[in-house]
Amino acid sequence: MSEAFEGGRLPAAYMNPGMSSFTEFLGAVHPDLLPNWRDLPQASGAHHLTPDATTIVALTFPGGVVLAGDRRATAGNVIANRDMEKLFRADEFSAVAIAGSAGIGIELARLYQVELEHYEKRESRPLSLEGKANRLANMLRGNLGLAMQGFVVVPLLVGYDEARDIGRIFSYDPVGGRYEEQRYHSIGSGSVFAKGSLKKLFTDDLTEGQAVEAAVQSLYDAAEDDSATGGPDLHRKIYPLVDIVTEEGYRRLPTEEVARVAETVVAGRAERPDGPIAPLS
Question: Which member of 23, 50, 54, 229 is catalytic?
Answer without folding.
Answer: 54
